[in-house]
């Protein structure tokens, strides 16, 4: 199957695109876009891949579902477009960066500047019906994004993986901890951030690791 995606990812993921599960997934997703309001806009499903080539990735942040409210999700996990109110989880991420590194809290929730530096924030499910969280779970996206994580772990070295919350922590099984730094804590959601996300210092730890490997750190 021919999927429009950045060339370095195309080369590594073509074997997934050719598998029967992915064809079934595409059939499902196309039918959903045809009959209901699905996020993100179709051309942005692989936006994080198109914005951050395989060789540029330094830090992987894993989420679960896209934001389900129209106007929020445009293909980059936790990020929202300029001018859109900052969601609770992202607000807590910014608070932790402020506590950890002393950075001022941004007024914009757009994380494109992170992606440009090699941060790869990816949801495990890449589409969702508007206002229906989890509506596209267990249709094949998780198989695909698990393959992405494993490909990054196997073919790259010295990456930082940030796994926040029980769901993301399960993905640690796909990552080689001898080649990469795996950081885990609770989810930054307002429901759980007080139980370990605040004070986790993942952002300074990530930069210390990158620096120790001679890799340009992230300006969070």
UniProtKB/TrEMBL annotation:
Its EC number is 3.2.2.27. Residues 50-210 form the Uracil-DNA glycosylase-like domain. It catalyses: Hydrolyzes single-stranded DNA or mismatched double-stranded DNA and polynucleotides, releasing free uracil. The active site is at residue 65. Coiled coil: none annotated. Pfam families: UDG. One of its GO terms (cellular component) is cytoplasm. One of its GO terms (biological process) is base-excision repair, AP site formation via deaminated base removal. Keywords: Cytoplasm, DNA damage, DNA repair, Hydrolase. It is found in: Cytoplasm. It comes from the Bacteria. GO terms for molecular function: uracil DNA N-glycosylase activity. Excises uracil residues from the DNA which can arise as a result of misincorporation of dUMP residues by DNA polymerase or due to deamination of cytosine. Belongs to the uracil-DNA glycosylase (UDG) superfamily. UNG family. HAMAP family: UDG. This is Uracil-DNA glycosylase.
């Amino acid at each position: 199957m021919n999927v429009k995606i950045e060339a370095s990812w195309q080369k590594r993921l073509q074997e997934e695109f050719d598998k029967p599960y992915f064809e079934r997934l595409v059939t499902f997703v196309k039918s959903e876009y045809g009959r209901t309001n699905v996020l993100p806009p179709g051309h942005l499903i692989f936006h994080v891949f198109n914005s951050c080539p395989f060789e540029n990735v330094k830090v992987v942040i894993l989420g679960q579902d896209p934001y389900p409210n129209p106007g929020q999700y445009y293909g980059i996990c936790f990020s929202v477009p300029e001018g859109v109110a900052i969601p609770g989880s992202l607000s807590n991420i910014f608070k932790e960066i402020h506590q950890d590194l002393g950075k001022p809290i941004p007024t914009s929730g757009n994380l494109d500047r992170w992606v440009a530096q090699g941060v790869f924030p990816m949801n495990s499910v890449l589409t969702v019906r508007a206002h229906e969280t989890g509506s596209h779970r267990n249709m094949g996206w998780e198989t695909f994004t698990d393959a992405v994580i494993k490909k990054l772990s196997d073919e790259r070295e010295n990456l930082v993986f940030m796994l926040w919350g029980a769901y993301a922590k399960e993905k640690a099984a796909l990552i080689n901890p001898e080649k990469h730094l795996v950081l885990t804590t609770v989810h930054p959601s307002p429901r759980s951030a007080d139980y370990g996300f605040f004070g986790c210092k993942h952002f300074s730890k990530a930069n210390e690791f990158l620096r120790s490997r001679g890799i340009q750190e992230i300006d969070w």
